[in-house]
Amino acid sequence: MKNQKVAKILNEIANFLEIKGDKYRPRAYRYAARTVESLSRDIKDIKKQDKLEELPGIGKNIAQKIEEIIDTGSLRYLEDMKKELSIELKSLLAVEGIGPKTIKLLYDELGVKNLDDLERMAKRHRIRRLKGMGEKTEKRILESIEFARKNSGRNLLGYTLPIAENLKNELMLLKVVDRVEIAGSIRRRKETVGDIDILVTTNKAQEVMNFFTSMENVENVISKGKTKSSVILKDNIESDLRVVDNKLFEATLLYFTGSKETNIEMRKIAIKKGLKLNDYGLFKGGKRLNLNTEKEIFQRLGMEFIEPELRENRGEIEAAMEGKLPELIGYDDLRGDLQMHSQWSDGYYSIEEMAIAARDWGHDYIAITDHTGLLQIAGGMSEEEIMAQTKEIEQLNDKIDGIKILKGIEANIKSNGELDVEDGILKDLDVVMASIHSGFRQDKEKLTNRIISAMENENVNIIAHPTGRKIQERRAYDLDLQKIFEVSRETNTFLEINSYPNRLDLSDINVKRAIETGCKLVINTDSHKKEHLKYIKLGIATARRGWAKKGDIINTLPLRRLNKLFN
């Protein structure tokens, strides 16, 4: 997580420099950020070896700033720029279509510093008068402001979960701690989360609190007590630690896992059965029942155990009462990953390096699906390069044991629904993915028909990140998803659950809709480097939140059956 934080701060510096009108240094800081983000080693270890300046794009000046971030968790240079400009950069960048250059224009011409300023100027029709903006841009900004506000104060699950797990692991090392669990929306694996809630059992509460409030990643202590302490981490996330009596742990874990709506419904069920349920336990006639596991609470209420990912009051209560909950796909059920990128397009590693990493992760097969011609910004391959890559994959399959590399591509769906690769090339590949990378603002009918046209191409196997959303960055395309689900089922074209932290696309809600329509889905990482393979757990979590069973996901199949399915 230190690498990610350093990269985030370097990118933030680049944004502020761009707003200040600097023409050259933003590029240098972004290059340095990409270097740090792509490292397979901890940046702290490289600093200890005094080798920061040996990294590509990192000179003496940036190296010194990286050292300050590592040592203090922040950077005075960035804080000074924030004070100087007083711009709420994060919230403004969350508005679709607004980047650093637009923020500079809005700041210089209209004095816009935050969402309130932006909204006021848009409603007064001041934005449309600026060079390069116009009425449509102004309208789109207004529509996106509410989206930006909704996402403020939340963090991506993929960013927060490793931080929470690291806190849990450190607490578990304490001999005086008996049990540690992460609760809240993280335990439910929501795509964005707020605070980190952790529960522990111990007979040495003060010792645990002393340890928690003095951990290396703690920036500030908000409060410190015998049973609860709250801190702000250097990652700018609040974390709460609660010490719970061992006899109360199961009920407290249930309560703090949530969701609030699910908890309310369970309390109603308890009342109907002459019981009382709260965070102190399950009671009958004023006496707390002896419960050893969370599952026992559900059993006493006449319910099947509801997995944390399902606890959103979306029908799981009724299904649990009727014994009709699905057996969710497990976190170890996938056999392969069918979307990843290599140095042939915009990936960081060679095909061989990606394949070996995937084999070590536990996959039986992968598909290399590099970008194609039209997507030049991502190093899209020409048809000659596609053919050359397939030969390399054939050679690597003879060389590498323990994993099968499938020949694939991620083709672009053009504005008319055609692909940017000829069918003669597509038919010789093992896996063909198709996706939209441009023309996001076409109307609903055109966007829907583009995807349907791709699905009707007999060579296309998978539609990648189908709705195009980027969490906290870009809203989903305006699509007739029900129609797409129906065509997916009819054409046997599989829709992707993209595991990348800011995509998780299809979303959990749309996963459930697709499965109810009879669609089969595929969970992929969209890995651009080896370190991204771990994101598969986020995709599986999204599938589970969408009620997906093992049989709903095609890459739970062994390779022989998968090939048969594609053919």
For the record, the CATH architecture of the largest domain stands as Alpha-Beta Barrel
CATH class of the largest domain: Alpha Beta
Proportion of β residues?
5-15%
| Radius of gyration using CA atoms only | 25 Å
- Number of helical segments? 24
Q: Major sheet, described briefly? A: 7 strands, parallel
Mean pLDDT: 93
C-alpha geometry: globular
Strand arrangement, major sheet: 11-12-13-14-15-16-17
Summarize the structure.
The protein has 567 residues and is of the alpha/beta class.
Tell me what you see in this structure:
By secondary structure, the chain is of the alpha/beta class. The protein has 4 domains: 2-151, DNA polymerase, domain 1; 155-244, Beta Polymerase, domain 2 (2-Layer Sandwich), CATH 3.30.460; 248-322, Beta Polymerase, domain 3, CATH 3.30.210.10; 336-566, TIM Barrel. The protein is 44% helix and 14% strand. It has 24 helices and 17 strands. The strands form 4 sheets. Strands 11-12-13-14-15-16-17 form a 7-stranded parallel beta sheet. A 5-stranded mixed beta sheet has the order 2-4-7-6-5, sandwiched between helices. It is globular. The two termini are 41 Å apart. 41% of the residues are buried.
